[in-house]
Amino acid sequence: MAVTETINWQHPKILQLAYELSQGRDHPEAIAKACFEWVREQIFHNSDYKMNPVTCAASEVLEYKTGYCYAKSHLLAALLRANSIPAGFCYQRLSVFDNGSPYCLHGFNGVYLPQHGWYRIDPRGNKAGVRDYSALKRRSLL
User: Fold this and answer.
1) Model pTM?
2) pLDDT digits (tens, 9 = 90+) for 65-85
């Protein structure tokens, strides 16, 4: 699984967290769930919490505990890849006011789970009204 400047999953702090999240879990689904929930709950969405700086690289997201949707997906991909779980990215055009233009681009993840194939997960969460819409929760894997 590729290491990039943005998905720097071999960063020591990412490797350490990935290891901690995998402990006591012996199936990819359980490890993916632990990584997903950690990012969803521990990394705060920049605009929801009025936080700075704007992060991009997975290690920056982990260091500052904040990121926009795409940045949260970078960290989740890094944690999954560090646990040998294939992960990539998905993007969706969303209406800013739920009634057409203007639009924004929303980033989330695709993860390969042996029992299910490629699966979409959205770690944005951790805000009232958002947490309950995670893809994994809707599909009853979590």
Assistant:
1) 0.87
2) 999 999 999 999 999 999 999
Q: In this structure, is residue 4 part of a structural domain? A: no
Per the structure, the complete domain to which residue 105 belongs is given by: 12-138
Q: What is the pLDDT of residue 130?
A: 56
- What total number of domains does the chain contain? 1
Angle value at C-alpha 87, between 55 and 59, nearest 5 degrees: 25
Residues linked to residue 113 through DSSP beta bridges, in sequence order: 117
Report yes or no: 22 and 31 within 8 Å, Cβ to Cβ: yes
